[in-house]
Design goal:
- The complex is a heterodimer of chains A (about 110) and B (about 110).
- Chain A is mainly β.
- Chain A has no helices and eleven strands.
- In chain A, the strands form two sheets. In chain A, strands 2, 4, 5, 9, 10 and 11 form a six-stranded mixed sheet that branches. A five-stranded antiparallel sheet of chain A has the order 1-3-8-7-6, with no helix packed on it.
- In chain A, a hairpin with a 4-residue loop joins strand 7 and strand 8.
- Chain A is globular, with a radius of gyration of 13 Å.
- The N and C termini of chain A lie far apart (about 35 Å).
- The model of chain A has no long low-confidence stretch (mean pLDDT about 90).
- Chain B is mostly beta strands and about 110 residues long.
- Chain B has no helices and eleven strands.
- In chain B, the strands form two sheets. In chain B, strands 2, 4, 5, 6, 9, 10 and 11 form a seven-stranded mixed sheet that branches. In chain B, strands 1-3-8-7 form a four-stranded antiparallel sheet, with no helix packed on it.
- In chain B, a hairpin with a 2-residue loop joins strand 9 and strand 10.
- Chain B is globular.
- The model of chain B has no long low-confidence stretch (mean pLDDT about 90).
- Classes of the chains: A mainly beta (about 110), B mainly beta (about 110).
Chain lengths: ~110, ~110
């Protein structure tokens, strides 16, 4: 089983819609959680960290559920510019330097 | 700000040839990484270096070697390239701030092995 798993999508939603995706992780001792965004043929960039209490950044909301070992990303009022691949990232307690990526969820926003 | 710089950006190799991918960061980060990305596979960790002088295997280390030359530089070597190593390679660096470890990436090296 992969350490971090995501639904690859693609999610194809109309502009203005709300879309959510989950990511599950297998190591219950995982320490830190993040969402990265990757545009086509570009390098990944940090979108937001995921805190235990959940956190919001504008139209983006991230949640962590340690009991069920998943994190989620909710995008409200989606824009055409949100089209990208969203990568879930986990760092385990055993090695805070080891950063593991999920395979990514592809999101396409249509006009 | 340069951030993380990878060279080369593109490379075509013949099967069996060797090459070294170079990576340098100017953010004084302790940790550096090499990932490969194949279509539909996300980023897979090849090797990482938690600090200068240490390296560890990631998820897919076979066929690769690394050198953490100093705090700034972390190179990836393919001793005998194979078509299965055709991929996009990303170097990254990070620094832990409490529980937060943000990774910064280079622009990638697109490698084709024929």
């Amino acid at each position: 089983r992969k350490e971090v798993e995501q639904d690859p999508g693609p999610f194809n939603v109309p502009e203005g819609a709300t879309v959510a995706f989950n990511c599950t992780y297998s190591n219950s001792a995982s320490q830190s959680f993040f969402w990265y965004r990757q545009d086509c043929r570009k390098e990944p960039k940090l979108l937001m960290s995921v805190y235990s209490s959940g956190n919001e950044d504008g139209r983006f909301t991230a949640q962590l559920n340690r009991a069920s070992q998943y994190i989620s990303l909710l995008i409200r009022d989606s824009k055409l510019s949100d089209s990208a691949t969203y990568l879930c990232v986990v760092t385990p307690y055993s090695s805070a330097s080891k950063i593991i990526f999920g395979s990514g969820t592809r999101l396409s926003i249509r006009p | 700000n340069a951030g993380v710089t990878q060279t080369p950006k593109f490379q075509v190799l013949k099967t069996g040839q060797s090459m070294t991918l170079q990576c340098a960061q100017d953010m004084n980060h302790n940790s550096m990484y090499w990932y490969r990305q194949d279509p539909g596979m996300g980023l897979r960790l090849i090797y990482y270096s938690a600090s200068e002088g240490t390296t560890d295997k990631g998820e897919v280390p076979n066929g690769y070697n690394v050198s953490r030359l100093n705090k700034r530089e972390f190179s990836l070597r393919l001793e005998s390239a194979a078509p299965s190593q055709t991929s996009v390679y990303f170097c990254a660096s990070s620094e832990a701030r409490g529980f937060i470890t943000e990774a910064f990436f280079g622009q990638g090296t697109r490698l084709t092995v024929v």
